[in-house]
Amino acid sequence: MDHKLIDLEKTVYELCSELPELKDVMATLGFDEITKPGRLQTMGRLMTIPKGCKAKGIDLDEVISGLKAAGFSVKGHEDEPAHAPAAEVADETPEQRQALLTSYLERLGAGEDVEDVREDFALHFANVSGGEIAAAEQALISGGVPVEKVQRLCDVHATLFEGSVSCAPGLSGTNPQDRPGHPVHTLRSENEQILKLVEGLRDDVDLSRAAKGADVVRALAQKLRADADLLAAIFPHYKRKEELLFPHLERHGVTGPSKVMWGKDDEVRELVGDLRQMTETLASSGDAAGLTAAADTLAAACEGAESMVSKEENVLVPLSLETLGASEWTQIAEESGEFGYVLIDEPPAWRASALEIAEERLNAGASAPVPEAPQADGTQKVRLSTGEFSVAQIEAVLNTIPLDLTFVDADDKTRYFSHGDTRAFPRPMSCLGRDVYDCHPPKSQAMVHKVFEDFRSGAKDSYEFWINKGEKFLYIRYFAVRDSEGNYLGALETTQDVAPIQELEGDNRRGADIRREERERREAHGAHEERGATSRPSM
Questions:
Q1: Count of beta carbons in the 10 Å neighbourhood of residue 495
Q2: Where are the domain boundaries for CATH 3.30.450.20 in the chain?
Q3: Contact status, residue 15 vs residue 7, Cβ threshold 8 Å
Q4: Residue spans of the chain under pLDDT 70
Q5: Which of 78, 147, 211, 459 has the least C-beta neighbours within 10 A?
Q6: How does pLDDT run across 417-469, given as a tens digit for each residue?
Q7: What is d(CA 183, CA 338) in angstroms, rounded to the nearest whole number?
Q8: 405-502: what fold?
């Protein structure tokens, strides 16, 4: 048996495992990357010697001659093409492409230099789809890599893939995303303005780092506080993405962006919150060292916002365009106004054309997975144990209750939300049927899991939280919903602005409105009597 036989159908990893001395020989023949940490474990598992020659533009016959000179015998080279330029990289299967992309992210996670990884990426990929990147992220998370670590990788791999992500063509040879009002057009327009904003804020970072004197520090602290407010104004952009775009991607099985990008959004939010707290102290202290720290925080927030623009443009937008259909984009456009827009005028109304929707349905064989509002006859009666309502009456009553109501079923799916005029948090139709955990940012999901686990087990029947939101003080409660036999049916979330309630004092037994009306009548009557007395003739 030949103990130095090289089978060209085997991967480089397999060959080097069988013949450890082969690694050094391969390095002398032009495969110098094989000696770098991680390369053999990643690329080597997918690459054969002939494929490697194609990728690197090395003559296969010369490599075989070198192997034979080193004492190896070679099997299978007669059937292999001798040489191909680097541009003609062998076509990998989708599985191989996915494995390669995942390996690149693993190498970045292990601390390998991004430029070294980029060299390998350029050898195998002229372009990569957003879906492939999302799948690679999901593969890491499914393989046990903590979401937080993938979030840390996000900044690095966005740089790796920049300029290489392909976009799906528009329907019928057009590009609907180029039309004003399309959610992608809106997102990109906002991103242009966000980059301009960030560039301007960097001047304040430089000034603050060089500031001297308490008065100058205090003045710049006020400027940084204003900068924090400017950055906070971009958060509706993030919220629209999280509440409108992510749910539709999740329905297509694409969960990576919501798990990774939402966490990166929260990092920017936290930095802005930290900046606000720091500047409040500096406004009175005039501490130069504290101002430098605040400037560093602003710089980090700017870098985070700028990095998110890159992630959206290079990963999220191409991924969304290749995944979502015309009807889904239409729903996103229709619900965007509730969340507001960032640094741009309100875009014009947009909806996909009938042709685009028809083509979508033709290609899919069915309508896109867009949740629709339930259709029912408003006069239909719903009989309850203590009375009855029409469907129209039920909806009106639920929307009149001065609480935001959301119901989550026993399977942890969002099934209903009220939509009165006083909602504290926007609720898009896309949240219906969505896993309740995915409706919350990654940092909050552990607490949400505990709430519903305790409800399901019977350990708890309610939870309560309260937060400040601008001028509102929101009191948020969760209640376990059970039937008469104690079986768990789901959970009810209620949200109420209790700031006006906190201001109440004394008694109001007759009602403030009634008392005010009576006071106004008395005042009007008194004025009438006074006018009458003035007009009477004197005796």
A1: 22
A2: 405-502
A3: yes
A4: 1-3, 33, 35-46, 55-56, 77-98, 101, 104-105, 108-109, 114-115, 117-174, 363-378, 510-516, 526-539
A5: 78
A6: 988 777 788 888 888 888 888 888 877 888 888 999 999 999 999 999 998 88
A7: 13
A8: Beta-Lactamase (3.30.450)
pLDDT tens per residue across span 260-272: 788 889 999 999 9
Tokens of 137: 């992220």
Q: Is 144 left (phi over 0), alpha (psi -120 to 50) or beta?
A: left
Helix axes 183-209, 288-311, angle to 10 degrees: 160
| DSSP per-residue string spanning 522-537 | HHHHHHHHHHHHHHSP
- 10 Å CB burial of residue 507 (0-12, 13-18, 19+) is exposed
- Cβ atoms of residues 399 and 420 within 8 Å: yes
**SS3 state of residue 518:** helix
Residues 6 or more apart whose CB falls under 8 angstroms from that of 328 comprise 248, 368, 369, 370
Contact 55, 62 (CB under 8 A): no
Could you give the 3-state DSSP secondary structure of residue 467?
strand
Q: By three-state DSSP, how is residue 311 classified?
A: helix
So what CATH class is 171-364? mainly alpha
Cβ–Cβ contacts within 10 Å for residue 501, how many?
Answer: 10
Encoding tokens for residue 196?
């301009």
Structure tokens at 438: 């995915």
Q: Is the pTM of this model over 0.70?
A: no
Burial of 489 from C-beta contacts in 10 A (0-12 / 13-18 / 19+) = middle
Torsion of CA 58, 60, 62, 65, to 10 degrees: 150
Tokens of residue 339, six digits: 């969340």
3-state secondary structure of 503: coil
Maximum CA pair distance of the chain? 141
Provide the H-helix boundaries in 70-182: 94-109, 114-124, 130-142, 147-161
Under 8 Å between Cβ of 437 and 448: yes
- Among 49, 72, 68, which residue's Cα sits nearest to residue 59? 49
List the structure tokens of 297. Answer: 């925080």
Within the chain, which residue ranges are assigned CATH 1.20.120.520? Answer: 171-364
